[in-house]
Specification:
365 residues, mainly beta, 4-stranded antiparallel β-sheet, 2 helices, 27 strands, 39% strand
Length: 365
């Protein structure tokens, strides 16, 4: 089994490859070594997987780069692949999410950017157009930046209906379309926003990440600034599922197993003490639920012992599509871990990297 793991960091993109069932890894030197890489995708819909990366250079600005030879060479259009139309009077400040659509639309790729907007590509991610229906939503002027910025960080194309997409942003919440992006509605009922007047606002929540259930797309899981939630009715209502987590229900990532319904993963952090943002009890632990969040168990075998002073960001955890699935996470102190058995045991892939911003993995051979 040939597995590719992309690791986006504060200083470039690293590619790790395993050809022995994820037992050992060869890690490349950094590409784009003076740039932030917040967004990655491995598009496995084509015979040779395409790797896409959102690159933010402090001098040249943001762009999207593409590789069709597993990272050996990279290309980008002569013009900016992601740019707002002139009449919007806006500029792309960074790419936060890259999401290939389903097999039914083999050349469609979505990108979420800062400031919060959605772009759509029909040529495999080489050029993009603004999805105006979301940009022109009447709520947009009141969306506010979260701690990391005003960013659309989650894009979830529906697995069977090409007209349906869910997105999430900080701070705005979850919005969904059922007409291909022409119109959007907030779907946040039940999600808390302790920092806003009113306990359960219609929109404005600081959503950190959303994941689709493997078998039932009407079920989604959500890590919010103040809790973990689940919907079983396409976002019409959300219920808290963080009762079995440790002292804190704060965190950034939420990952769904690629095939097993109800299996999800998160990495809790402490949110108080003036942005403390470390794991509870300084313990490195991935929490897994196998019943849709009703109960949780800490998975620590092979992970560092206490004290552990590093966070895991919203896109720094992922799953591959192997059987059994591999689970991965990267930390802000430059360590990346892999579990080849769905979270039971962990091993270090690489350490001493720059601050890890995102990870993506897929079987490519």
């Amino acid at each position: 089994m040939d597995v590719l793991l992309g690791i986006g960091t504060r200083k470039g993109l690293f590619l790790a490859r395993s050809k022995d069932g994820r037992s050992s890894w060869n890690v490349s030197a950094p590409r784009f070594a003076v740039a932030d890489v917040k967004a990655l995708a491995i598009d496995a819909r084509r015979e040779t997987p395409r790797v896409l990366a959102g690159v933010l250079d402090s001098h040249f600005g943001p762009t999207m780069v593409v590789s069709d030879d597993v990272g050996e060479t990279w290309s980008e259009p002569d013009g900016a692949p992601l740019a707002f139309p002139e009449d919007t009077e806006a500029a792309v400040q960074g790419v936060w999410q890259i999401a290939p659509a389903t097999d039914a639309e083999p050349e469609v790729v979505y990108a979420g950017v800062e400031p919060s907007a959605l772009f759509r590509s029909t040529d495999g991610g080489r050029t993009f157009e603004l999805v105006r229906g979301l940009w022109e939503h009447p709520h947009r002027p009141e969306w506010m930046p979260g701690g990391g910025g005003l960013a659309l960080h989650t894009v979830l194309p529906h697995p069977t209906d090409t007209q349906r997409i869910a997105v999430a942003m900080s701070t705005g919440g979850v919005y969904q379309t059922s007409d291909g992006g022409a119109s959007w509605k907030p779907t946040n009922k039940g999600i808390t926003a302790d920092f806003m007047p009113g306990e359960l606002p219609e929109w404005g929540q600081c959503v950190h990440k959303v994941a689709l259930d493997a078998e039932t797309p009407s079920t989604m899981y959500l890590q919010n600034h103040g809790g973990v939630f689940r919907t079983t009715d396409d976002g019409a209502s959300w219920q808290s599922i963080d009762g079995g987590l440790p002292a804190s229900n704060f965190g950034f990532p939420i990952v769904a197993h690629p095939r097993r319904s109800g299996v999800i993963y998160t990495f809790p952090l402490v949110a108080d003490m003036e942005r403390f943002r470390f794991p509870p009890d300084a313990t490195c632990a991935v929490y897994r639920s196998e019943d849709g969040g009703e109960t949780w168990s800490a998975k620590t075998d092979g992970l560092p012992q206490v004290p552990f002073w590093a966070a895991v960001m919203r896109d720094s955890m992922c799953a591959d599509d192997a059987d059994p699935a591999g689970i991965y996470f990267g930390t802000r102190n430059g360590e990346v871990y892999c579990s080849a058995d769905e979270g039971e045991h962990w091993q270090l892939v690489v350490d001493k990297l720059p601050d890890v911003l995102c990870v993506r993995a897929a079987v490519i051979g």
